[in-house]
Amino acid sequence: MTTHQDAAEQLRVIRTMMERATIFRALSGEAALLGGAMALAAGWISESRVGWAWGSVWLAGLGIVMVFAVWQLHRLSQIHERPFWSHGLKVALRGALPSLIAGGFLGLLYLKYGGRQPAYPKAEYFAASFWVLHYGLALLAIREFAPKSMVWLGIAFLTTGLIAFAAGTFIQSMNHLLIRLGPSGLMAATFGGFHLLYGAAIVTTTRRDRPGA
Questions:
Q1: pTM, entire model
Q2: DSSP secondary structure string, 32-47?
Q3: Which of 44, 52, 98, 173 holds its CA 20 to 30 A away from the CA of 19?
Q4: pLDDT in tens, 155-200
């Protein structure tokens, strides 16, 4: 490889890394704060609901956060005069979508066909466990070019999802903790609490013109 080709390759790599960092910066701090606030609101609204009524509250919150994230990406693409449907965005979606689709499908499947009792609505518990678990897997699937803080966020979701699933299935001694927390409480504690902590850390420690830490 000639010196010119080597320099061109290095510039291409640097440009790709900057593009990916911009995407994660756009999706990190502010989106995490909005997502956390929406999750707390959804936790309160869905507290007395079951089945599709419970799930629709969370899907509506997800839709609002997705619209906000798309608007952020569109705004940044215009500011930096870059294409919205960039190579970095395609790579991120290819990494995250399989886990998100699988977890979303399993959760909806349990809401439709899972067992349900007034004192222990297993369908909602399992749906929440699968959504938390697979969201963590999606974050870890893009860890190669995500900021380190997002990797820790993925580990937190993955660990909590596994514990919640184990508590709802094989570790009966933990059932009372799951029942006390409730499916809405589990979703609010993870998608609300984790995202608010993450977003606050990113917004207060990262300069506006730098990628997320």
A1: 0.80
A2: HHHHHHHHHHHHHHTT
A3: 98
A4: 999 999 999 988 887 777 777 777 788 899 999 999 999 999 988 8
